[in-house]
Amino acid sequence: MFDAKTTCMVVVGAQWGDEGKGKLVDVLAERADLVVRYQGGANAGHTVVIGDTQFILRQIPSGILHSGVTCIIGNGVVLEPENLFAELDSLHQRGIDTAGRLFISDRAHLVLPYHKLLDAASEKSQKLGTTGRGIGPAYEDKYGRRGIRVTDLRRVECARMLLSDRVHRANQLLQLMESTERADLDEHVRLLERLAPRLLPLAADAGLLLHRAIKDRRRVLLEGAQGALLDVDHGTYPYVTSSNTTAGGAAVGAGIGPTAIDGVLGVVKAYTTRVGNGPLPTEAPAPYEQRLRELGGEFGAVTGRPRRCGWFDATVVRYAARVNGLTGLAVTKLDVLDSFPEIQVGTMYRLGGEPCEEMPAEVEALGRVEPVYETHAGWQRPTGTARRLADLPSAARSYLDRLQELSGAPVRYVSVGTRRDQIIEV
Ligand code: GDP
Ligand code: IMO
Ligand code: MG
Are 300 and 275 spatial neighbours (Cβ–Cβ below 8 Å)? Predict the structure, then answer.
């Protein structure tokens, strides 16, 4: 992964999120100096399993579990401070020392309780199936130039003035959306006053820290959240999240130039899942879907919602390879397919009877496409102990070869279980 020419890598989800980015970043972080989250917020749930212990990281980069790694939360993240502290406390309780190695960009925007009230109220009409973490409303405020940033806590005496305008506006919107909920100004002021002393010592000019690290040839991983099809520009709009989840967002959200990035690894499951509403062309018929869900443990890490499951969709991954400029793929959860006698792969779509090889812009059209499937023989042998490609059954290797061919990006890693050691480097 890292070599003399490659020191700054982006890891992104190349489907609809939950591809196993946390596991990959944890594995790769063993050789990294810094790991950076650059977009999204507490809507992410990145699972890392070490021995029998499972960690679910929401806002803290998955590199935190390696004691020598410095972690940065970049300017592009919308930070929910209370959740961050709960995450930190839980890490400390489990013996992970984070002192001196977590920094938060002073330009990151804050997610406050009124954002969550607005998220819940707009879900009543929009029905996107959001995670309810206030992500959309926080990004709306950021781009509306009325956000509150980490650096604003440095003048916490001004918080009441800032907040009174925001809380008033939020309450007007809640009324407009016919919600009976109201945000409370005093509660918000007290919250910021309470959070500031704990948050400010972590605040830093994260872009500058990173710039210096990259100049010193330190090894950097930029950890994406969500996935390409949830990108606000390139995803299945409007059933998307509110940030740029694709690799272009890494430079902006970490505060570095795009020329600093040496490669982009796209994480994909050996099949497809989606949580939340919106089209999922290769969604499998109930018996297959249930089996994938059970074997893959496909329940949301944040909300516990059952994930919708289906076959590998090569149109999706080909598209993700293009819009991310993927230089490699990490295929995860191959082991979940171990017991299937036959496995389907969607190679392209048909739309109104015509071939369709590219993602349509219109969500309505994507809802109507019919995937063209090819059937692969299953291997019906456990793969969890494989550590080299040669250890895999030949049918599993053929399956991976085909995914690579259809996706147009080389497979660099194959994950065959939740644990750190269950990884094949190709
Ligand atoms: P992320 O959001 O992309 O980090 O992914 P999540 O953590 O939300 O979901 C991935 C789930 O799959 C987690 O429960 C992981 O522990 C699990 N996982 C990751 N890689 C593998 C794998 O290769 N095999 C199996 N069986 N589970 C995996
Ligand atoms: P990780 O990083 C899967 C989905 C939600 C919803 C849509 C918008 O763990 O892969 P939001 O709360 O962001 O406004 O919800 O995006 N979503 C995710 N799905 N994995 C995630 O993160 C997600 N983060 C958001 O389910 O459909
Ligand atoms: Mg997840």
Answer: yes
Residue nearest to atom 27 of ligand 2 (CA): 276
The answer to whether the Cα torsion of 292, 297, 298, 304 is positive or negative is positive
**Does the pLDDT of residue 304 top 90, yes or no?**
no
Question: Could you read off the pLDDT of 161-210 as tens digits, one per residue?
Answer: 999 999 999 999 999 999 999 999 999 999 999 999 999 999 999 999 99
Instruction: Say if CB 303 and CB 131 are below 8 A apart.
Output: yes
What distance lies between CA 177 and its chain's CA centroid?
A: 29
CA of 13 to the centre of ligand 3 (A): 10
Q: Which residues contact 74 (CB under 8 A, 6 or more apart)?
A: 36, 37, 38, 39, 105, 108, 206, 207, 210, 253, 254, 255
Rounded to an integer, the average pLDDT of 32-38 is 98
Beta-carbon count within 10 A of 93 CB: 8
Query: Residue 54: is its pLDDT beyond 90?
Result: yes
Rounded CA separation 239/283 (Å): 16
Q: Give the whole-angstrom CA distance, residue 42 versus residue 272.
A: 22
- Determine the pLDDT at residue 157: 83
Separation between Cα atoms, residue 361 and residue 373, nearest integer Å: 22
Whole-number pLDDT of residue 413: 98
CA distance linking residue 248 with residue 394, whole number of Å: 36
Q: Is the pTM of this model over 0.90?
A: yes
Pocket residues for ligand 2 (CB within 6 Å)?
A: 13, 17-18, 43-46, 128-131, 133, 135-136, 225-227, 230, 241-242, 275-276, 301
Please work out whether the CB of residue 13 comes within 6 Å of at least one atom of ligand 1.
Answer: yes
Task: Kindly give, in sequence order, each residue whose CB lies less than 8 Å from that of residue 318, ignoring residues fewer than 6 positions away.
Answer: 357, 406, 407, 408
Residue 301: count of CB within 10 angstroms of its CB: 19
CA–centroid distance, 186 to ligand 3, in Å, is 34
pLDDT 10s digits, 140-161: 999 999 999 999 999 988 888 9
Measured CA to CA, the distance from residue 76 to residue 210 in angstroms comes to 14
Count other Cβ atoms within 10 Å, centred on residue 27.
22
* Bond into 371 cis (ω within 30): no
Query: Within its chain, how far is the Cα of 182 from the centroid?
Result: 30
pLDDT above 90 coverage of the chain, percent: 95
Catalytic residue positions, numbered: 18, 46
Query: Tokens 């070490």 sit at which residue?
Result: 50
pLDDT at 160: 86
